[in-house]
Amino acid sequence: MDLHVSRLFVFPIKSCGAYETDEWQLESYGFQYDRNWAVVSTSEVCITQTEDPKLCLIKPYIDLQKGTMTLVYAENEDEVPMVVPLDTKHSDTMRMGKICWGGHLEGMDCGDEVAEWLSWNLDQPGLRLVRCTSRTIAPKSYERIDPKVIASNRCQYLLSTQSTLKWLQQEMENEIAEIDEDNLLYRFRGNFLISGDSLPPFGELTWQELDIGGVKFQFVEGCERCKMVNIDQDTSESIYKPLSILGKHKKEGKLIFGIYMKSEDAQKCKIRVGQKCTVIKTRKLNF
Asked: For the whole model, what pTM was predicted?
């Protein structure tokens, strides 16, 4: 089975748009800059697309040479973009934001200019952008959260496969309507898309250990999905609902699409599109 990395994505701001790249640095918490920032409301809550779907319209563009992240709202060329330094200077203003699944994020406030830009575009007064530096220990009900991650939901990495994506696209066309492959992929907000010959749909659920470009990744759990995957990441509208399809094809009793993975040997490594993936160890499923 010829497996390889076909696409890579980073999500710098929690619940905002993706930045696609051909290669990216790994850090102890996951991809460099992945979920390093969060938008915090006046009630000190880290907002997600569950609360405000329009977050997906904030698209980040990273320039590593300049050390900047440029934010564009709804790809509006008439709107003035916002430029944020990748390395936020230490700020005397520290903020905390409650996380929807329990616990808090804490970090440095990124200033009034980007705060006003976010509040204007999202039509919510008082929003703040926070560069996250730590998180509280999760409650017992969320013990599976990797302590190294910053603002990711569960683990360092989220991986999906082309075969499972194609299967879901066909199921949606059969039952609901035609949907563009990219439109569907963006809804699931994974870091890796893996492609390969003869890989069956949901085959990734059998991977216990995977080697990608010499870096070893271990399976943690299948990614159980919520209603966020119904949000069109280009329009913020909830249409063509893939969650209903996944509900008819549960895996291990859950609505799963993609897998969470972790790695212990990610320091000073890069993952590139085209790199070979090798399944080192497999696991049995309880379907």
From this structure: 0.92
